[in-house]
Recover the amino acids of this structure.
């Protein structure tokens, strides 16, 4: 049994306690409310730029798209312009659909041995959970802009309107909060319960999921149960975005700081982890290149000089046999 | 050769239950029959790459060079600097598991390290330790692993259980391509002198004689002439292909397997007949007598060294463009690497079919056209006289070879040709063809006898799909456009679906071709009666 | 062929989005709004519940009032020995007679859009 998730769970619990005690009992609200968020943003930006530029530093020596459809060839053979693009437009289409709809994941199937046969079943769950999780996350992030923008722009309000369309509960339930939690929990359960997935999972796979579950849970707690004074929260966050720093009078609950600290940890964690897939997906050479290397020469900046076996060397080796066999030679 | 299980036993032995030990703690298996034999030192010496005295993977101590750790570390670093793909693929895998059961070797063996994700983790764990901060600090919690001789052994075992087929890459949400990772790992192993003979001997042969099989020029010519004799016997027509002829319009290059072993030889006969039929001004080369490229399975430099002959010979002979035969990895190299490595090919002209006038715009730069594109174009323009009923005894299906499918996208051209040269064509199920096709189980240099168990297991998904159409439609012939396939699929079919034969599509073209002045044919290219009733 | 410019453009776009709050607000100090108390409210000194409770739980209180009034015809809210008519328009708005000054300031600040006023009326705002 893979116990990596225990490390991660422990890490998340400890981090939560650090903030709870630190900002709560120890009263370090300035540290957790101002210093750490700034530090986290700085590390995130620097780390993100470093990681991406480090990737950019290495060239793409060969044009190696994974072609998943008919190539462009004879005029009367229909090309699959999305899955085997030969133009920039096709590549953009492929990338767009990949990033926005997780198209490759949608193809997922599962192998089963049935009698004396192998069968493949289309399975939608991974795609579904992934979509649920990522879009919920996006909605939650956009919604949270209400704490960082004054006045609150229309698009944030529009998202809130749609997100709260159920008009259930008070304060009204935001669907995305629930689905984010559900998505993260489902992805976590996959990792714990499916033997193959459990076998491949590392602490680094459980940690971000548990952290995000922590973020969602503390957020939901604050909104619906323990309650937090959102005016004060916004006072703090607006102070951060406008550089008018200060902890609102009377302070904020420890739970809020746990929530905020988790978010800080998450963004610090991104550049140093697999969460960089958010940037990497744009830079994957098997997806972001057109399959046109027979039409247009691709340049390898480090194309090495190598030792060939030249025709002359070849002929020197076999000249007599070639002459005897009636093969033309350069030198008689 | 080690005896392997009977098909039924093998199938029943497949178990997808994961081991109770962590994968890091499961040592690789090196019992006889599980590994490819290491290369003979002379091949490494001939090619001038790091060499190693005779050894066996079964040895406890592999006697790695003293500074092996440094070699690997530096080699890894160099490759991270050269290939963005490697860097990105090391960093961004989220281990979602989508690839896990897409690998034919995993499906056939149930060995979790044959899941593409774990195969990559073998390398990734070392990457984390050597090149990431988290891995240096947190060690195994961050999934980092110090490299040890056992890790090297593990690499050798599992990176020679990957056929670089790229099927996993189709399903990966980030397009992580295990082929790319396997290539890097094999390059690193090669730095320690760890190569397998079934790859390096052909590579050394190819370097010297121009082809993997080591066929010398006079023998190459004899073989082709031998086929011409057979063709004469079957059709009554005497063919006179030329060799190393300067001034020919087209240079034709095909894998040497087609000149050497059945059933590739029949495909070779098909090519020759086709060219005769349309009166093509072409020549064969004994120097560039290999389409395939076992350098691809060794290192990018080796690939470049072997591939260089194609353009060099085209230039020497002054041809206008190059036509390439049916081969899988050959076309991966031509489509995705050749001109980048050995171009520009500006001494040739944009390929134009002299018979139909079609300009192959998609090959405008490399100047090399696939025979399936070429033949499809001929048929479309009604330039071939075909009698598909000559293939009526066959119920044909088509195996998409990995490389033309996922490294090129040559999918509909061969199907078009097949549908014109035979009357009974059936597709295998959709998740086993086209971009989702399964490897023959023996690609990327693994077509070697000593790992027959692995090959049969790896080929099972393909065979399983063939079995399906065999039972459903009575399919009795598996066609393909790859020389490795033509060598690997016959034993695979014998093992799993014994009633099914293997052919290249140009063998079927050769059968169907009604050539001017030919005698009435009574047999196909294999000297077997045209129709079973006539037996 | 270097694709670094493209990658840098990508990074710039990403960070432009990420730092959207910083430049959207362009450093303008905004003080958190305080609900303006009318003279009458100041005079009363005490709302139905204490200020802390009202800040975070007023929506629950009003929701409870509504449910009891509409479903059980319970129009009286009793707390701390005092009785109030459970009515937003009459009880609450009697003291807090200016919706814009009292309700909207915080609601707008935190982008909260209660549907109280879909049914209820509020006193004419004094200009």
């Amino acid at each position: 049994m893979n116990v990596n998730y225990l490390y991660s769970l422990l890490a998340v619990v400890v981090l939560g306690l650090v903030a709870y005690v630190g900002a709560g009992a120890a009263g370090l609200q300035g540290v957790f409310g101002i210093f750490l968020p700034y530090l986290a943003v700085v590390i995130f930006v620097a780390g993100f730029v470093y990681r991406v530029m480090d990737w950019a530093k290495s060239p793409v020596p060969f044009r190696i798209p994974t072609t998943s459809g008919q190539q462009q060839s004879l005029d009367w053979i229909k090309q699959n312009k999305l899955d085997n693009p030969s133009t920039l437009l096709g590549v953009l289409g492929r990338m767009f659909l990949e990033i926005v709809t997780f198209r490759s994941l949608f193809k997922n199937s599962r192998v089963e041995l049935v009698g004396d046969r192998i069968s493949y079943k289309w399975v939608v769950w991974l795609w579904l959970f992934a979509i649920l999780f990522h879009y919920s996350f996006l909605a939650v992030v956009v919604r949270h802009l209400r704490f960082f923008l004054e006045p609150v722009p229309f698009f944030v309000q529009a998202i809130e309107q749609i997100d709260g369309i159920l008009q259930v509960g008070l304060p009204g339930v935001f669907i995305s909060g629930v689905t984010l939690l559900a998505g993260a929990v489902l992805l976590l359960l996959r990792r714990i319960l499916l033997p193959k997935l459990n076998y491949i999972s590392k602490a680094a796979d459980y940690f971000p999921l548990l952290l995000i579950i922590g973020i969602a849970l503390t957020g939901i707690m604050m909104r619906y149960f323990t309650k937090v004074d959102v005016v004060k929260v916004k006072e703090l966050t607006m102070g951060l975005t406008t550089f008018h720093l200060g902890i609102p009078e009377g302070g904020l609950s420890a739970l809020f700081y746990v929530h905020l600290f988790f978010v800080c940890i998450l963004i610090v964690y991104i550049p140093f982890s697999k969460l960089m897939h958010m940037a990497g997906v744009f830079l994957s050479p098997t997806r972001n290149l057109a399959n046109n290397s027979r039409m247009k020469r691709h340049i390898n900046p480090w194309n090495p000089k190598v030792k060939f076996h030249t025709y002359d060397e070849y002929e020197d080796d076999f000249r007599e046999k070639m002459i005897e066999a009636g093969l033309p030679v350069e030198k008689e | 050769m080690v005896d392997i299980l009977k098909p039924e036993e093998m199938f029943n032995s497949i178990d997808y239950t994961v081991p109770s030990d962590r994968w890091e703690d499961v040592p690789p298996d090196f019992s006889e029959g599980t590994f490819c034999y290491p290369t003979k030192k002379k091949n490494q010496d001939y090619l001038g790459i790091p060499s190693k005295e005779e050894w066996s993977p079964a040895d406890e101590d592999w006697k790695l060079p003293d500074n092996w750790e440094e070699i690997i570390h530096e080699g890894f670093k160099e490759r991270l600097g050269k290939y963005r793909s490697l860097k990105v693929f090391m960093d961004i895998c989220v281990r979602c598991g989508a690839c896990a059961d897409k690998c034919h070797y995993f499906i056939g063996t149930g060995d979790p390290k044959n899941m593409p994700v774990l195969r990559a983790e073998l390398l990734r764990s070392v990457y984390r330790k050597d090149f990431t901060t988290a891995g240096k600090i947190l060690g195994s919690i961050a999934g980092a692993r110090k490299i040890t001789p056992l890790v090297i052994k593990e690499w050798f075992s599992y990176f020679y259980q990957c056929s670089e087929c790229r099927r996993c890459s189709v399903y990966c949400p980030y397009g992580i391509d295990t082929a790319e990772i396997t290539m890097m790992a094999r390059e690193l192993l090669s730095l320690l002198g760890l190569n397998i003979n079934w790859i390096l001997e052909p590579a050394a042969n190819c370097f010297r004689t121009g082809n993997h099989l080591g066929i010398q020029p006079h023998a190459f010519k004899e073989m082709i002439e031998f086929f011409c004799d057979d063709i004469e016997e079957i059709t009554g027509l005497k063919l006179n292909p030329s060799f190393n002829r300067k001034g020919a319009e087209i240079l034709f290059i095909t894998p040497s397997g087609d000149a050497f072993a059945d059933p590739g030889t029949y495909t070779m006969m098909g090519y020759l007949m086709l060219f005769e039929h349309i009166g093509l001004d072409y020549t064969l080369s004994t120097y560039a007598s290999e389409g395939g490229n076992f350098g691809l399975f060794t290192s990018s430099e080796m690939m470049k060294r072997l591939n260089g002959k194609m353009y060099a010979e085209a230039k020497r002979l002054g041809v206008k463009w190059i036509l390439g035969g049916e081969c899988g990895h050959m076309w991966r190299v031509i489509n995705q690497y050749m001109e980048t490595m050995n171009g520009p090919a500006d001494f040739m002209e944009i390929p134009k079919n002299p018979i139909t006038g079609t300009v192959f715009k998609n090959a405008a730069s490399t100047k090399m056209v696939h025979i399936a594109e070429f033949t499809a174009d001929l048929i479309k323009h009604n330039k071939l006289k075909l009698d598909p009923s000559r293939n009526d005894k066959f119920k044909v299906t088509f195996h998409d070879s990995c490389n033309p499918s996922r490294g090129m996208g040559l999918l509909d051209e061969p199907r078009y040709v097949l549908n014109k040269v035979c009357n009974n064509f059936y597709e295998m199920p959709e998740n086993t063809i086209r971009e989702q096709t399964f490897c023959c189980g023996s690609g990327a240099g693994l077509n070697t006898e000593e790992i027959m168990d692995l090959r049969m297991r790896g080929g099972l998904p393909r065979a399983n799909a063939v079995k399906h159409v065999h039972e459903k439609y009575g399919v009795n012939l598996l066609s393909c456009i790859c020389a490795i396939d033509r060598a690997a699929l016959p034993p695979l079919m014998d093992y799993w679906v014994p009633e099914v034969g293997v052919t290249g599509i140009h063998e079927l073209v050769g059968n169907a071709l009604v050539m001017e002045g030919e005698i009435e044919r009574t047999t196909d290219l294999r000297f077997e009666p045209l129709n079973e009733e006539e037996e | 062929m270097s694709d670094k410019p493209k990658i840098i453009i990508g990074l710039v776009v990403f960070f432009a989005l990420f730092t959207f709050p910083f430049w959207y607000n362009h450093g303008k100090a905004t003080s958190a709004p305080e609900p303006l108390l009318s003279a009458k409210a100041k005079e009363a000194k005490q709302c139905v519940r204490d200020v802390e409770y009202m800040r975070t739980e007023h929506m629950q209180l009003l929701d409870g009032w509504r449910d009891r009034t509409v479903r059980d015809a319970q129009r009286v809210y009793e707390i701390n020995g005092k009785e109030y008519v459970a009515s937003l328009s009459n009880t609450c708005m009697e003291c807090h007679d200016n919706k814009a000054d009292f309700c909207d300031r915080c609601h707008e600040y935190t982008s909260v859009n209660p549907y109280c006023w879909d049914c209820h009326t509020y006193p004419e705002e004094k200009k």
